[in-house]
Amino acid sequence: MTWQSLTDWWWPYLFILLAGWLPTDVWRFIGVFIGGRVSEESEALIAVRAVATALVAGVIAQLILYPSGALAETSVFLRIGAAAAGFVAYLALGRRVIISVIAGEAVLLCGLLLT
User: Fold this and answer.
1) In total, how many domains does the chain have?
2) Can you give the residue range of the structural domain that contains 77?
């Protein structure tokens, strides 16, 4: 591998493999290996769950308040309404994530079509 190979067609795929997939899978394997031995009521698992929930909430807040791309062209009220509709659908329709995602996307798409 040389610096000239950075322009080759295969370089982005190798980069994704090394920088994206490999580090992520290492942590997944560690989680599977250790996860079966940790009690659900343990302090460590509660802390991990809290951090994971905070990260997801942060990403959702960033998408709503500071979007990029095509989402940035939508109204903040439409984005908040779509998130709220997804949350209400989650609570009302059996606490299924896929249903809440579909409901939120439906509200967002309908709002885009109407504006």
Assistant:
1) 2
2) 40-115
CA dihedral 86, 91, 92, 94 (to 10 degrees): 110
User: Helix, strand or coil for residue 2?
Assistant: coil
In a shared domain, residues 46 and 84: yes
* Contacts for 78-82: CB closer than 8 Å, 24+ residues apart: 78/107, 78/108, 78/111, 78/112, 78/115, 79/108, 81/107, 81/111, 82/107, 82/108, 82/111
The pTM of the full predicted model, rounded to 2 decimals, is 0.67
Chain segment 14-51, per-residue pLDDT in tens = 888 888 888 888 888 888 888 778 888 889 889 988 99
